[in-house]
Amino acid sequence: MTAQNSKASIIDGKAHAAKLKASIAAEAARLKAEHGLVPGLATILVGNDPASEVYVRNKNKTAESLGFKSVHHHLPADVSEAELLALVKALNADPSVHGILVQMPLPKHIREEAVLDTLDPAKDVDALTPYNAGLLLSGRAHLVSCTPMGVMMLLKETIGSIAGMEALVIGRSLLFGKPAAQLLLAANATVTMAHSRTKDLAEVCRRADILVAAIGKPEFVRGDWVKPGATVIDVGINRVDAGDGKSKLVGDVAYGEAAERAAHITPVPGGVGAMTIICLMRNTLIAAAALAGLPPLSL
Ligand code: NAP
Hints:
Largest sheet: 6 strands, parallel
Distance between the termini: 26 Å
Radius of gyration: 19 Å
Domain Tetrahydrofolate dehydrogenase/cyclohydrolase NAD(P)-binding: 145-289
Low-confidence stretches: none
InterPro entries: Aminoacid_DH-like_N_sf (IPR046346), NAD(P)-bd_dom_sf (IPR036291), THF_DH/CycHdrlase (IPR000672), THF_DH/CycHdrlase_cat_dom (IPR020630), THF_DH/CycHdrlase_CS (IPR020867), THF_DH/CycHdrlase_NAD-bd_dom (IPR020631)
Order of helices and strands: EHEHEHEHHHEHEHEEEEHEH
Strand content: 15-25%
GO biological process, one term: purine nucleotide biosynthetic process
Domain Tetrahydrofolate dehydrogenase/cyclohydrolase catalytic: 11-126
Number of strands: 11
Bound molecules: NADP nicotinamide-adenine-dinucleotide phosphate
Keywords: Amino-acid biosynthesis, Histidine biosynthesis, Hydrolase, Methionine biosynthesis, Multifunctional enzyme, NADP, One-carbon metabolism, Oxidoreductase, Purine biosynthesis
């Protein structure tokens, strides 16, 4: 498929996600039939951020559509840190729960580190605990952060081996940039990480065969920053004014301009975002199998 008025082929995240969902559904059915295992996902949302509410609702709906057990805990914005930690501990101890997702960001009075230090790494399906981050760094990853994993799957399906390629990740968050760089390195790319202190970002971008943007600034990466023939992965999700009193979602890359020069590009929406929830389901299934003492799954 080709982007309108452009040379780049569109990386269809929705189609890839549908394929992965089908294989997760098949594996979940097998585990249920052979071992009576029903994966359980517990989500915790603190407060009433509308975007977070939508994300969490979609996660629960997707889990249910796969036949997983799905439990949601919605806590008031002024819940104490101690109460939240007590809930996490209770879910850690609940054998019917295999994955626990605490939706970030949390209100300022709650320390994210305290929550992550309490969460059982075996149930850390967002792979945010220091233990899982350390396993990834050591080349022994078990549960891997969902969005970076989705990006790697899209790259594999789109260009195959990335060994020796110049890969740039813009953004160094714990949630995306750092694990993404580790995964690209593990796939033998030559990896550069850029951030808000990077000098002459446009020039750094022009060297990248794979350009991954996770900045959180609408259409920040311009078309003439893209190396001709590069693969552009846009992780950003930004809601902007559509000009007609409505809003729309755009990425961190100026899509129309970038599609003129890239060989492959992810759209927003319909690119990376589509993979994230499915990778969360994959992690929940992997965690369930591991907690039940079953051999590692090949998904
Ligand atoms: P974040 O924690 O806010 O990190 C943003 C990163 O961008 C930081 O490392 C920051 O650098 C860097 N940055 C900011 N301004 C910059 C500039 N002018 N030049 C270069 N780098 C700059 O964000 P995040 O959680 O990683 O998310 C990033 C984006 O991805 C957001 O739009 C988010 O909504 C989206 N996202 C999407 C998904 C999905 O499922 N598709 C999942 C996760 C996130 P410093 O470290 O120097 O401050």
